[in-house]
Amino acid sequence: MTHGSTAHRAAVLGTGQTHHRSKRPDVSIAGLCREAVDRALADAGLVLADIDAVVVGKAPDLFEGVMMPELYLADALGATGKPLLRVHTAGSVGGATGIVAANLIQAGLHRRVLAVAFEKQSESNAMWALSIMPPFAMPLLAGAGGYFAPHVRSYIRRSGSPAYIGALVAVKDRRNGARNPYAHLRQPDITLESVQASPMLWDPVRYDETCPSSDGACAVVIGDQAAAQASSRPVAWIRATSMRTEPTMFSGKDHVNPRAGADAAAALWTKAGISRPIDEVDVAEIYVPFSWFEPMWLENLGFAPPGGGWKLTEAGETEIGGLIPVNPSGGVLCSNPIGASGLLRFAESAMQVMGVAGEHQVPGARTALGHAYGGGSQYFSMWVVASTPD
Amino acid sequence: MRDVAVVAFAEAPNVRRTDGTTNGVEMLVPIFREAFTQAGIGKADIGFWCSGSSDYLAGRAFSFVSAVDAIGAFPPVMESHVEMDGAFALYEAWVKVLTGEADVALAYGFGKSSAGELPRVLALQLDPYVQAPLWPDSVSIAALQARLGLDQGLWTERAMAEVAVRSRAAASSNSRAQLSGSVSTDELLAAPFVADPLRAHDCAPVTDGAAVVIIAASDRARELCARPAWITGFEHRIDSGTLGARDLTRAPSATTAAAAAGVPGGRGVDVAELHAPFTHQELILRAALGLPDSARISPSGGALAGNPMFAAGLARIGHAARQIHTGAAGRALAHATSGPALQQNLVCVLEAR
């Protein structure tokens, strides 16, 4: 709508995440969140008393069976006596949580804000919580896979992609996940053949091309320019953020290449001063819950022209060392604590430009994309972070 | 910091039950139109949208997703959602305008409370391991809070009833109110308890409803509204969620929020719209906010005259802004609450210029 001229600078000061597992019976919801928060604060060299405000994100409350759990979590998150906001924008919520926290800094309201996102899927059953009957709309059937599989088939038909591209993505992401000590699925020995031999769940999406159900949390500390300059550790400067929404269903909806995602990306690149994303972005953490969404989102984001995404994947350009490494952390295909998955993408992108991603570091990464989407491919949130402020 | 003002407000009729869906679209479409008409703008003028609602109220995941249908969100819009009262959605919208990313923003909240058993649904806001399994409903928790104050001599059942009498009388001039009219304190006190010491008049009714507020920055606000309600303070704080860990007769987060919003001790406030779903909670809030005796309290009737969940807080801000728009007040305080027993409190200060 306008410019960003009134905005203050903001930077990621620290990140933290849990060990993601299918079940974390060793911790309560509060304990799970606190594990990520404590790591983020330690990473930033801060304590809870340094935090001015807390932003909590998670996907539907029915995933745990707790209504507005942030109310109960206020003490555990150190939010008591402080401002606390709870964001919920479907699967994109982790990204939206990071953006709302960044906005609080960019608006000049706070010096340091804590963003926390989580999902403890083992407390309930996400697939059936998603199998809803919305009025006047197509039901989601049995979980998200059944909803998205037809869009994948449509992508394959439109792009002329060979059938094995999805399996290639799965092999890459699961092997990347093996380099990430926090990943839920760590499979260094996975092969194209083993993925293709795994059971078919929702044609053409096979078991090994599907995200797991995870318990997990992620936390990010975001600070203003003074806080960033006061930090003795590397920070990730937030160059641009972007969010767009469109309806779930309407005449003219393109589920393969949604306009909301393309618009959000175009606005993001403009704000970040990036004209050729493929050349100017060093690494991307993209929300890929089913393998085929890597080539689909590469096109939607403008890394490749329509029909060209699968060619980047096939040529190995999305591996670490390629032209645009995608999900060096292993991504959503390795860990999917739904509400946290978006913030994990944002945090992992920050870790890359801070140079602290360890075994899955992309060498020399200076500019990175964090991306999330949700609902029926209708909510998009994304940011660009860099190792320098301008 | 940019100057931002409330330029338009509309709310759906507060009613016991609507026939519409839980996604709020039927309640939202008419009030979007009403607010747009007030400001003389259309949906293309909105740079940022933000909503507040609850999946648990609707009884299914993603109820806000279909609410987007009320916008007609194509071409795609910049939009967000909080699982909180719409007042907090307005806060997020205000932040977005402050960053310079939008000049005009719209916040809405909606709730179809009649879709379930509201007091029982709200029990699920408590600690899921040690409190929620006991199913303490929201009315019973409020009754415990009221009892603590009565036993400490902080208020009386008569003082509580007087709040209800004033609320219903004030609501007589609010065409969208659910409960209004002239009643006497003695009449109300003759009624049986619902949950000792609360009688029916002490509890906000169960209400279906929705509200929308439009804000705009500096010159744009002056274009859209003859007498903009400038936001001079906007703060919120939260207290512990553990009921046994706080003094339920106080609302420290309300006190802190008001002080941070620039109205410590209710300084200079002509009128206050309070989101108090129970009579004794209004008494707690008046003390916590230190409102002067001269301040008019909830001329809309407040939440006791209609309490659409996830919209009632936003509606308080709208009604406070209306006091500025009409010239009835120079400085108004609007309050919104969330969580059991006034756990979370928001204060928005609006001024004429």
For the largest interface, the chains and their residue counts are: A-B, 69 and 70 residues
Query: Strand share of the residues of chain B?
Result: 15-25%
- Give the overall shape of chain A, derived from the CA principal axes: globular
Which sequence of strands runs across the widest sheet of chain A?
Answer: 3-2-4-7-1-8-11-10-9
The proportion of residues in beta strands of chain A is: 15-25%
Terminal Cα separation of chain A, in Å?
22 Å
Instruction: Kindly report the average pLDDT value of chain B.
Output: 97
The general outline of chain B is: globular
Distance between the termini of chain B: 17 Å
Secondary-structure-based class of chain B equals alpha/beta
pLDDT < 50 stretches of chain B: none
What is the C-alpha radius of gyration of chain A, as a whole number of Å? 19 Å
Tags for this entry?
A: 390 residues; alpha/beta; nine-stranded mixed beta sheet; two-stranded antiparallel ribbon; 13 helices; B: 12 strands
In short:
The complex is a heterodimer of chains A (390) and B (353). Chain A has 390 residues and is of the alpha/beta class.
Describe the structure.
The complex is a heterodimer of chains A (390) and B (353). By secondary structure, chain A is α/β, with parallel strands linked by helices. In chain A, the strands form two sheets. A nine-stranded mixed beta sheet of chain A has the order 3-2-4-7-1-8-11-10-9. In chain A, helix 3 crosses helix 13. The longest helix of chain A has 17 residues. In chain B, the strands form two sheets. A ten-stranded mixed beta sheet of chain B has the order 3-2-4-7-1-8-12-11-9-10. Chain B has a two-stranded antiparallel sheet with strand order 5-6. In chain B, helix 11 links the parallel strand 9 and strand 10. In chain B, helix 7 crosses helix 11. The longest helix of chain B is centred in the N-terminal third of the chain and has 15 residues. The two termini of chain B are 17 Å apart. Chains A and B meet through helix 2, strand 3, helix 3, strand 8 and helix 9 of A and helix 3, strand 3, helix 4, strand 8 and helix 10 of B.
